[in-house]
From TrEMBL:
UniProt-annotated location(s): Cell outer membrane
Cited InterPro entries: SusD-like_N, SusD_RagB_dom, TPR-like_helical_dom_sf
All residue ranges annotated as the SusD-like N-terminal domain in the record: 98-209
Pfam families assigned to the protein according to its UniProt record, in alphabetical order: SusD-like_3 (PF14322), SusD_RagB (PF07980)
Biological source species: Aestuariibaculum lutulentum
Protein name: RagB/SusD family nutrient uptake outer membrane protein
Protein origin, superkingdom: Bacteria
Position of the signal peptide: none
Assigned protein family: Belongs to the SusD family.
């Protein structure tokens, strides 16, 4: 059974980890006794409880569960949050590149910033304790636990850097002298994380090599190596720095040549291990997530685990259900979705399209049974997340408990393609891209859509452009796009291009001139599933009297298009969220916001 694991309370109870004020009796109290730590971290069973507890802060109300996952990652050239066009909305402010330090969704002492540092402090205590008392050698339980703790600390830091840029670096447990510290260069943090993950990979088994790595809720060597590759690409990529704008790191240890070689080596290690693989179909990836299949060895490398009564993945992102019905006990889903152009940017033969982009919701139930119903062209939903694919009926009013897909094997293939292209050219990247596209197209289409298409990419630039496009087709709805666009130096350009494309769709001009203006629909024999005609380009012929019609040329207005990012703002000047005011105020003058926040 999946669950967020609870830390042994004797280890870290009572500590505050976010540069907030800490009660004087805590600072004056004697440190945790050496005897306690020696018992806990020399015993694999007790240490397991401590390491499992590193993840617990993710499930807190204003942490990953209810704030960070629902709001970080929007808006991009493929995903937007539907709060974006709500004037004055504090939720919308988080997505339109105009976030304020006093944002009332995030400016709280238990927000994700605080909970990330709580998790980091727990990891620091575990790492120190296991190193001091545990003799953590490769092949031992305590060695594996050390590797897990190093990896989970890296997850928290990776997400901190992704959202805030430079942040305080805490790699030892807090003491009275380190209670208040300033931000560190993210370059230094990246180097530490890359080193830590290199060590962790020597300690943690491959998927299914040990009982603990038989579940995607526990970290394994494939995930560690994939995460190390992801961080190497991010560390060497473009990003906004204080005072000198968007650039690559100038640290020679984080050069493109070094980091891309590291990323390619790590990806090839995962690929050659044979311990993980693409699922046979794209739909299978997402059915398994919604069915809560947590067996390792498939495509999922690691998922953030949520208990049935915690987590808001479907609550936030699923195809919208307007009422309690035959599939769910909560009327939720649909706070975000694909941009309306994305469906039309897919190749019509691409099997990922209809999984990623859904043009309907589940309407108000009659006698507890609802039907699919079309929504407007401005409102699409992520079909990767569906209550109707669950095996469990959600009864909680606030949470669904479905895990968050943090990394999957498809990303390893695409990172390998990108790194190989940069280092060795398009021909070296082609096999990785072909493998990913083979899954996306049926066998009858593969000669044209896979072999001919990839073989035509003969230059480094054409292959890079194809990888950027492939990333959109593969990962729409997974909130991976924002960091990718940032590290490619494409965030502002792609967002401006997205506004232009939506305007073209609105006016049915340019690349969208042949998008139909009327949809036709009827219900299949189950009387709940829509049969839709008119979604594909050029489908303009009335299919007959058995179909009803719906206008498909209104609903996408200028205000919605402009809400992708605030007018007058350059997204490249607002790549990060500001540190929330409560943490600035309680930092004893150590923390400041950059980027003119």
């Amino acid at each position: 059974m999946k669950y967020i694991k609870i830390i042994l309370g004797i280890i870290v109870a009572g500590v505050s980890f976010s540069c907030q004020e800490i009660e004087s009796d805590f600072l004056d109290a004697p440190a945790q006794s050496t005897l306690d730590e020696s018992l806990i971290f020399s015993n694999a069973g007790l240490a397991r409880g401590a390491v499992d507890g590193i993840l617990e802060p993710m499930g807190q109300t204003n942490s990953y569960r209810g704030r960070h996952i629902p709001f970080y990652g929007f808006n991009t050239d493929t995903e937007w949050n539907y709060s974006s066009d709500e004037v004055g909305s504090s939720q919308g402010e988080l997505m339109i590149y105009d976030t304020k330090p006093n944002n009332d969704q995030m400016n709280r002492d238990n927000s994700s910033w605080a909970m990330m540092y709580t998790g980091i402090e727990r990891a620091n205590i575990c790492i120190r304790g296991i190193r001091t008392y545990g003799d953590p050698e490769p092949g031992t339980e305590l060695g594996q636990l050390l590797g897990e703790a190093l990896t989970l600390r890296a997850v928290y830091y990776a997400d901190l850097i992704k959202a805030w840029g430079d942040v305080p670096a805490r790699f030892e447990p807090i003491n009275s002298e380190t209670l208040y510290i300033a931000k560190s260069s993210r370059d230094l943090i990246y180097k530490q994380l890359i080193a830590d993950l290199g060590e962790a990979a020597t300690l943690v088994p491959w998927p299914n090599e040990a009982s603990t790595t038989s579940s995607v809720e526990n970290v394994n060597k494939a995930f560690i190596k994939g995460l190390r590759a992801r961080l190497a690409l991010a560390a060497s990529g473009f990003q906004q720095y204080p005072n000198d704008g968007v650039r690559r790191s100038t640290d020679p240890d984080l050069s493109v040549s070094k980091m891309y070689r590291l990323a390619l080596n790590e990806c090839n290690d995962v690929i050659n291990s044979g311990t993980v693989k693409l699922e046979s179909t794209f739909e299978t990836v997402w059915r398994k997530l919604n069915e809560e299949d947590i067996n390792a060895g498939g495509e999922a490398l690691w998922q953030i685990p949520f208990a049935d009564g915690r987590g808001r993945v479907l609550f936030s992102f699923a195809v919208r259900h307007r009422s309690v019905d035959q599939y769910t006990g909560q009327a939720r889903g649909g706070i975000a979705g694909p941009l309306p152009t994305v469906f039309y940017d897919f190749d019509e033969a691409d099997t990922r399209r209809d999984i990623s982009c859904v043009p309907y919701q589940w309407g108000t139930a009659v006698n507890s049974i609802s039907q699919q119903e079309l929504v407007g062209i401005d409102t699409w939903y992520f079909g990767k997340y569906r209550y109707e694919w669950m095996k469990r009926y959600v009864t909680s009013t606030n949470d669904d408990g479905v895990n968050f897909m943090y990394m999957r094997y498809a990303e390893v293939l695409l990172m390998a393609a990108e790194a190989a292209n940069e280092l060795d050219g398009a021909a070296a990247a082609a096999p990785y891209l072909k493998e990913l596209r083979m899954r996306a197209f049926n066998s009858a289409d593969q000669a044209e859509k896979v072999d001919s298409y990839v073989n035509s990419l003969t230059t480094k630039q054409s292959m890079f452009n194809a990888i950027v496009d492939e990333h959109l087709f593969e990962f729409t709805g997974e909130m991976q796009r924002k960091q990718a666009l940032i590290r490619w130096g494409l965030l502002g350009d792609k967002l401006r291009e997205a506004k232009t494309k939506m305007t073209d769709l609105q006016l049915r001009q340019g690349d969208y001139a042949d998008v139909p203006t009327t949809l036709y629909y009827k219900y299949q024999d189950d009387n709940e599933t829509l049969d839709i005609y008119g979604l594909n380009r050029g489908e303009t012929t009335d299919p007959g009297s058995e179909y009803s019609s719906k206008a498909w040329d209104s609903g996408l207005d200028d205000d919605e298009i402009n809400s992708l990012f605030k007018e007058g703002i350059d997204p490249d000047d607002r790549q990060f969220w500001p540190i929330w005011q409560i943490f600035i105020d309680n930092s004893n003058g150590q923390l400041v916001n950059d980027y003119d926040y």
